[in-house]
Specification:
heterodimer, A: 134 residues, alpha/beta, Rossmann fold, 5 helices, 44% helix, 18% strand, B: alpha/beta, TIM Barrel, 46% helix, globular
């Protein structure tokens, strides 16, 4: 079975990459293939990377509040590119009121401060497996 | 899958999962830096300590016990709360409130577009305008930000790095128009680009031209704004990125050495600019290790300035610092616990002799703080200052077997990292090969694994978890601020003298390509109402942009 392929991306202007890097390492240590895009990627660059890398998962790290604008744009591009089977998850500081809005546009996992590495790994493994079986 | 569940949680009758008293808990027997902690410290732990040489009275070299002979008796620390959000109008109102509540200094948080030298109408500013701080695009916004606040009477700290010269120039022009004397005003610009490359990543230009902007500010202020703190060499962000206390201390002070060396290499005399260098540390949770860190910082800096740079002015030897409690230590779960964390961290900073202090608000793992949460944070400092009695005695922990042994150990560890960086040719080359970045990422990962394994207990997160929690009120910043800033910017571009702007930007490009001081053409561009983005673009044209090599 091929390894789960994950693109971890830092969209927006924010440079706080502690979370993105910790998650990237945890996913890699859990046996996944991780592509870290680096900082300040536009939604276009992120979705292009997912397409090019044949990713199963896109993980967005956003702490600045820009998720309200960036996530809808990423999901729009994901659909345009026919990547509907790619699992999109977000980690960062996401106010409660925004959670239903992000879920409504198709973001499946929203991980806020206090989430554990193992719960994120398990979530991704479970969802990628379910999608493969569907 | 959410980190915490919003729901009904009766605060009067909390349903906590209590740990059974008989179960032995995994307790951390090391400091945050992984150094072993003995069960007991005795006179033999500090047998090599020489009072006159290693400690001395407060106010005496090497200032381990503080830079003032009387501690806080003469003057309490400055209670400086970092704040900024939305439009300059929104933030101006918050400042007026902080000053009314007894705050004694201002500290400006800028939004990401401003920090990254982008105007609100740039494509990369999408969703970011006014979100993490206040949006300041031009002198017009700076005038609004300080409307009704006399810059001659307060000190202002501005957290700005890559575009520090531009924002500082705006502040100077506002002060000038208020009739304030540049020779008398005081405040701080962070202006610390090295820790941006290391940790926070808000860089624009490559390291070497970035360093020139900083030495230009050193030279300009020595001549024109002598009471201004030209740089705040910051460990705060290094720690937030995951560094240990020892790494924070070592990388920060080594950054400080790099700035002094660049200043000297630019032809400045040490005692002409070093007295205006200040530091900024993270006030974290490992109480005694933090206190040891501040004390070791003063001792190391005094020795380095005296022995490595032959500073003669006592002010060059005295390390002054601001402290902020640790944002990354705050939890989204049971957020009221954050008041307690912050109080302990703040107490540590005070016992360590900080010159000024910001206390974080209880809701900062969730959002920018509400006005109510900010007030509690400020009150926390006021309780420490006026009720606890700790401000009555200078360095009350001096002589503690444990604190002195730990101060020595922290110092020794930090000096070891200094040597590693010196061997690479200094901090700029060390950054270029990713050394501090990798060290910090490693520590961050190790800590997260320890939390996951519950080797490191975080109350309310991996132990003592509440089954259901009532959400706390949070500040929500919508897109209205962005729309207002975009409208104002459009009007500014229409109404200003655009020929004058173009001439000023050309002049800035010329000076940047040559070797003159960049502050003078930046001041002229600011007076012409050139925007932050336009001025930063002019320098991008000449110097290019830095791109780090991404690694995991």
């Amino acid at each position: 079975m091929r390894k789960i392929r994950v693109v971890i991306a830092k969209p927006g202007l924010d440079g706080h990459d502690r979370g993105a890097k910790v998650i990237a390492r945890a996913l890699r240590d859990a046996g996944m293939e991780v592509i870290y895009t680096g900082l300040r990627q536009t939604p276009e660059q992120i979705v292009a990377a997912a397409l090019q890398e044949d990713a199963d998962v896109i993980g967005l790290s956003i702490l600045s509040g820009a998720h309200t604008q960036i996530c809808p744009r990423v999901m729009e591009l994901v659909r345009e590119q026919g990547l509907d089977d790619v699992l999109v998850v977000v980690g960062g500081i996401i106010p409660d009121v925004d959670v239903p809005r992000l879920e409504a546009i198709g973001i499946k996992g929203i991980f806020t401060p206090g989430s554990t590495l193992s719960e994120i790994v398990e979530f991704i493994e479970r969802h990628v497996r379910e999608r493969a079986e569907a | 899958m959410r980190g915490f569940q919003a729901g009904t949680y009766n605060r009067a009758m909390p349903s906590m999962k209590e740990a059974p008293a008989a179960t032995p808990r995994p307790v951390s027997r090391t400091t945050s830096s992984g150094r072993p902690v003995e069960p007991l410290y005795t006179p033999s732990s500090i047998a090599n300590l020489d009072y006159g040489r290693d400690l001395n009275d407060p106010g005496g070299f090497p200032y381990t016990r503080g830079i003032h002979p009387t501690g806080y008796r003469g003057k309490l620390w400055t209670m400086r709360q970092f704040a900024g959000f939305g439009t300059p109008e929104d933030t101006n109102a918050r400042y007026q409130e902080l000053l009314r509540n007894g705050g004694t200094g201002l500290s400006v948080a800028f939004d990401l577009p401003t920090l990254m030298g982008r105007d609100p109408d740039h494509a990369l500013s999408l969703g970011e305008v006014g979100k993490c701080g206040v949006s300041v695009a031009s002198l017009a916004d700076m005038e609004t930000l300080f409307e009704g606040i006399s810059l001659a009477d307060i000190t202002t700290s501005m957290t700005i790095n890559s575009p520090a010269s531009m924002i500082f120039a705006m502040y100077l022009v506002v002060a000038e128009r208020q009739g304030a004397d540049w020779r008398k005003i005081s405040g701080t610009i962070q202006n610390d680009i090295l820790k941006e490359f290391i940790a926070q990543k808000e860089y624009i230009y490559p390291p070497r031209p970035s360093m020139r902007l900083i030495t230009d500010v050193f030279a300009f202020c020595a001549r024109e704004v002598p009471r201004w703190n030209t740089i705040s060499v910051s460990g705060y962000h290094i720690r937030e990125a995951g560094a240990t206390a020892v790494q924070e201390l070592a990388f920060t002070l080594r950054d400080g050495i790099e700035y002094v060396q660049y200043g000297v290499d630019a032809g400045l005399a040490v005692d002409e600019f070093v007295p205006r260098i200040s530091f900024f540390f993270n006030a974290h949770s490992d109480f005694f290790e933090e206190i040891a860190k501040y004390r070791a910082a003063r001792r190391i800096w005094a020795h380095v300035m005296k022995e490595r740079f032959h500073a003669a002015d006592e002010r060059s030897l005295k390390l002054r610092f601001h402290a902020q409690t640790a944002g990354a230590s705050l939890t989204a779960q049971q957020p009221y616990n954050n008041v307690v964390r912050t109080a302990l961290q703040a107490l540590g900073a005070v016992l360590g002799g900080t010159q000024s202090l910001h206390t974080n608000s209880l809701d900062e793992a969730l959002a920018l703080p509400t006005s109510e949460a900010v007030t509690i944070a400020l009150r926390t400092q006021q309780v420490i200052a006026h009720e606890s009695g700790v401000a009555n005695v200078a360095d009350p922990l001096g002589g503690s077997y444990f604190v002195e042994a730990l101060t020595d150990d922290v110092e020794r560890q930090a000096l070891g990292l200094f040597r590693a960086i010196d061997d690479m040719g200094g901090m700029v080359p060390a950054i270029e090969r990713g050394f501090p970045q990798k060290e910090i990422a490693e520590s961050a990962y190790r800590l997260q694994q320890a939390i996951d394994r519950r080797d490191q207990i975080i109350v309310g997160v991996n132990d003592f978890v509440a089954e259901a929690e009532e959400p706390v009120p949070t500040l929500y910043i919508d897109e209205a601020a962005s729309e207002r800033q975009l409208a104002k910017l459009e009007r500014l571009r229409r109404e200003r003298d655009n020929d004058r702007v173009a001439r000023a930007l050309d002049r800035l490009r010329q000076v940047a390509a040559g070797s003159g001081n960049t502050m003078e053409p930046i001041l002229e561009a600011v007076r012409a109402y050139a925007t932050v983005g336009e001025m930063c673009d002019a320098l991008r044209d000449v110097w290019g942009e830095y791109e780090e090599v991404a690694f995991v």
